[in-house]
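A reminder from the course coordinator: this example appears on the midterm review sheet, so study it carefully.

Given structure:
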């Protein structure tokens, strides 16, 4: 019989701690599209931020049928190259009908048909488009011009805003002397006189997400309301009206009760006087 020290247990193989999906799963910017010409569909932020801009763009000098806003819509800018286009993340046009061809919805924005260029363009930085959005790409003469050149020199869009969701930094570019000049408002709010409103950075909750957002404000510096906020304000006002009506009803009921108590007291007093042989009537 062989004796000796008991065998030591074999330790389990070491494994790395589990990694989050953010670390392991590719994003839409990491993998090529099945269509090599497809620039990629918007991610969730690229949907929510333009939607907030759409909801709060309420220029007081224009009724709702005389300005147009769009997100991720092709803008065609060259009559002699009708297939060339840029696709801003969000843009606004002042003085253009909201409708196209007898109240139909647009499939694109063709500047030589509309005769009105966009007033304001917002681009949201992403890994695939950052250099293009910031004017750092170059094109050959036989290629379509860069986005920066189209916005600045061809369409001459007065305001170009670039916002990074990664750094929460916003660049305000204003067209002056036919070129963009970056301005640095102290409160990160840019007033747009022709529209009668301003655009700035707002920290708050939108569609369940708490972060910094681009949002429009009025001439009093008040952030213009979203559809959800307007609905909530109407609900609160309805509730306040209901409470006021209930308070009025209670006050009227209390006044009626006091009047009834006074009437009963007067009747008791009159009965007591009659019992004493005194006529209570003068």
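Designed residues:
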């Amino acid at each position: 019989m062989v004796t000796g020290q008991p065998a030591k247990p074999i330790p389990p193989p070491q494994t790395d701690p589990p990694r989050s999906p953010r670390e392991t799963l590719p994003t839409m910017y990491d993998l090529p599209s099945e269509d090599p010409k497809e620039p990629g569909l918007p991610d969730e932020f690229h949907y929510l931020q333009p939607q907030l801009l759409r909801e709060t763009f309420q220029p007081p000098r224009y009724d709702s049928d005389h300005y147009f806003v769009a997100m991720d819509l092709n803008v065609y800018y060259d009559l002699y190259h009708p297939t060339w286009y840029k696709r801003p993340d969000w843009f606004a046009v002042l003085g253009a009908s909201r409708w196209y061809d007898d109240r139909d919805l647009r499939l694109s924005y063709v500047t030589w048909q509309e005769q009105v260029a966009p007033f304001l363009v917002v681009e949201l930085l992403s890994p695939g488009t950052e250099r293009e959005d910031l004017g750092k790409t170059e094109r050959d003469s036989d290629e379509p011009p860069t986005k920066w050149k189209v916005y600045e020199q061809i369409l001459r869009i007065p305001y170009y805003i670039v916002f990074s969701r990664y750094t929460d930094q916003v660049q305000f570019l204003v067209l002056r002397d036919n070129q963009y000049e970056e301005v640095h408002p102290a409160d990160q709010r840019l007033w747009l006189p022709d529209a009668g409103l301003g655009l700035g950075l707002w920290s708050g909750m939108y569609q369940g997400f708490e972060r910094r957002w681009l949002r429009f404000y009025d001439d009093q510096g008040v952030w213009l309301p979203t559809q959800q906020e307007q609905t909530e304000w109407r609900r609160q006002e309805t509730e306040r009206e209901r409470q006021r009506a209930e308070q009025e009803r209670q006050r009227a009921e209390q006044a009626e009760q006091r009047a009834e108590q006074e009437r009963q007291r007067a009747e008791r007093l009159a009965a007591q006087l009659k019992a004493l042989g005194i006529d209570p009537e003068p």
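The chain has six helices and twelve strands. The domain at 39-224 is CATH 3.90.1570 (tt1808, chain A).
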